[in-house]
Amino acid sequence: MPVRDERGLYERICLEGFQAGLSWATILRKRPAFRAAFADFDPDVVAGFGGSDVDRLLADAGIVRHRGKIEAAVGNARATVALRAEGGLPGLVWSFRPAATPRPRTAAEVPTRSAESEALSRALRARGFRFVGPTTMYALMEAVGIVDTHLMGSHRRGSSGVWPEPEGRA
């Protein structure tokens, strides 16, 4: 379903970064612990985390204990707060919605990146975000409804309402 709020997008950027190199099952299983550890992904709170908080998080067995990813989540909170002066994270992320969404008929046709995800990655990196590569940002775009990569004919295709299929063409 579409995610258009700052906290929701910040959380998903963080979780996509933590997922890099791991299975989604691991991240989803740990999601409650991530929310507890990162103040329910409140960017204002996480932006205030310091070295002792990073040490605390590195000792938290409930989350992925990777210093670079933890420090990126803190830095990304600071970048999220700073981005408010430019209109905010939701406006920036959603500005990369393509004119059309993919129309895959097989799993092999589902893309893993796009020109828009590459541009979003560059835009976020330019503003201080980390762990936001183009493949990771494409996964974010799928997760928040910016693109719909459900297979044509899938019962989930178009269910977000962002990309409704024309009648009789699903």
Automatic annotation (TrEMBL):
Keywords in alphabetical order = Metal-binding, Zinc
- For this entry, list what GO says about its biological process: base-excision repair
UniProt-listed SUPFAM superfamilies: DNA-glycosylase (SSF48150)
Instruction: Locate the residues binding Zn(2+).
Output: H150
Annotated InterPro entries: Adenine_glyco, DNA-3mA_glycosylase, DNA_glycosylase
The record's PANTHER family line, in alphabetical order, gives:
DNA-3-METHYLADENINE GLYCOSYLASE 1, DNA-3-METHYLADENINE GLYCOSYLASE I
Name of the protein this chain belongs to? 3-methyladenine DNA glycosylase
